[in-house]
Amino acid sequence: MNIDNQIFLGDCEKVLKSFPDNCVDLIFTSPPYADQRKATYGGIKPDQYVNWFMPKANEFLRILKPQGTFILNIKERVVNGERHTYVIELILKMREIGWLWTEEFIWHKKNSYPGKWPNRFRDNWERLLQFNKNKKFRMYQEAVMVPVGDWAKDRLSNLSNKDKIRDESKVGSGFGKNISNWVGRDKVYPTNVVHLATECSNQNHSAAFPTELPTWFIKLFTQPNDLVLDPFLGSGTTAVAAIQLGRKYVGIDTEQNYIEISKARLLDTQIQLPMIAENSENYQVEDKRDS
Amino acid sequence: MNIDNQIFLGDCEKVLKSFPDNCVDLIFTSPPYADQRKATYGGIKPDQYVNWFMPKANEFLRILKPQGTFILNIKERVVNGERHTYVIELILKMREIGWLWTEEFIWHKKNSYPGKWPNRFRDNWERLLQFNKNKKFRMYQEAVMVPVGDWAKDRLSNLSNKDKIRDESKVGSGFGKNISNWVGRDKVYPTNVVHLATECSNQNHSAAFPTELPTWFIKLFTQPNDLVLDPFLGSGTTAVAAIQLGRKYVGIDTEQNYIEISKARLLDTQIQLPMIAENSENYQVEDKRDS
DNA sequence: GTTCCGCATGAATCGATAG
DNA sequence: ACTATCGATTCATGCGGAA
Hints:
The first copy, chain A, is an alpha/beta fold. Chain A has nine helices and twelve strands.
């Protein structure tokens, strides 16, 4: 069965059974959050969330390549005035079945509108849990480097003597040691806080996250032509990001109308792709990556 | 025993036994993280961390007022390529003994420790876990409102008109309606992401966190003359923040030399206090709080 | 009184080497 | 095999003295 650039209708737990082992480079997904109310989309009760998720996590583990990465965008609901614990219980369960909890990225939302409740402020961040099958996994850090801060141009233009001898004088880690490496460098590595706006620029659909979010992780963990899976595809944002970056996608969703939306967006994206390739800095990034 | 504005030498678990029930309005603390600060505090092994912490958490629960709040600044260590789970296990244990896990604030650091590793970026955030004894707790949200200018350039300005319309139709409850509430105001509520720099160039002491961090939470959860406890006082930052804001402090630490440092800083703060009261906007905040 | 600029340092992590 | 130590790597900020 060919799964490249396909979208499947159904429960990912069942659909994935027909996928071969170790076939996907990156899983990026944002499953339906637990919900008290009856189902609009998913609608899993918080207390049942872990049990609902784990069989799927098992399939993810099977179909992910050994050096691949699983990024899970998830948020716990406030239930009865408390943050529910299903997310942290999920982390513990994932480790029990063999996943490594490698990292927790934070999506710091740049522009949410104001809000106020008696006992809490607006929730302005979400977890992006990184899981891996092995301690060694593929990561292309150069692909997401960001411009260096303004401090550098002053500092590096006239290297001070102290910068060079720091590491000899003290036990501390010597930043001055190879300061010469820094001359002419204009990009630095980012941190594990991803600071992006919340809105999606496309107005025909409502996506849970902006395209930039999967874009960042797809750049970081895959190379062109790698395969990106989103088992809860929703309106198809992950697939759109993958296509824009020259990767292949596989998507799964239980709702036929979401699949229609995804397909329409993907078609639209592919039509615009040559234009994007010319203008977008995102697309250019491929050329600069280390190999 | 009078505990107001006192600093005690010893293990907080033992020292707190002599405190009466329900005597503290806010606990703000940053305990030694697992395997960290070995030089001064001995270092707790990650696997033993929860067992080390829980008896203390029990005392905290006893001495906190029913409407009070416990803010725990903590971060998990990377062990063997994985994030260790002691923090999330701690949350589950805390709930078992009666704490409510009300909220998780994020401290988004402006300047994190530099470094590059094959498998991860710089860790640029820490958890600030909020625990309470009851669903109803005291919170003075007006005290931490931020000037609309600072806020707008970060958030509102990024929203286009179309986004506002789209959001309004999507949520129904009406972003447009919401936004009109904020037009013309000069202050807005913050979110649960606190964006501050670490202090790195104080010469007399090494504070793990900047004064602004306890300041923010002390304003949010206490009123003047309330009592703020830091059971792992360290260099006394929490106590300094409390005094600056006209609150009372209690501090506990196991290291005599840290206590000396704290006392010196507090003396210094009190000398400068009249000056601060005249000039600081922070100090003025008391007058504007809602009651 | 500003502005500029040198400079110290911060709750780090990985891999290799040594005990 | 398992732990302890050491070297290499990496940014951004606020202070304080100088211009």
